[in-house]
Amino acid sequence: MPELPEVESITRILNGCLPGKTIIGTKFFFAGMLGGQTADDFAGQLCGKQIMAVKRRGKYLHFYLAGGKILEVHLRMTGAFFFFSEGRPADQYIRAIFFLGGGSELHFRDIRKFGTFRLWDKEVLDSFNQQRLGPDPLEDIGDFHFFQEVLGRKPQSCLKAFLLDQKNLAGMGNIYTDEALFRACLSPLRRVGTLSESDQLSLMQAIQEVLREGITCGGVSVSNYEDPYGRPGSFQDRLMVYRRDKEPCPRCGHKISRQVVAGRGTYFCPVCQLDKEVSGYN
DNA sequence: CTCCGTGCCTGTGAGC
DNA sequence: TGCTCACAGGCACGGA
Question: What does the DSSP 8-state code read for residue A22?
Answer without folding.
Answer: B
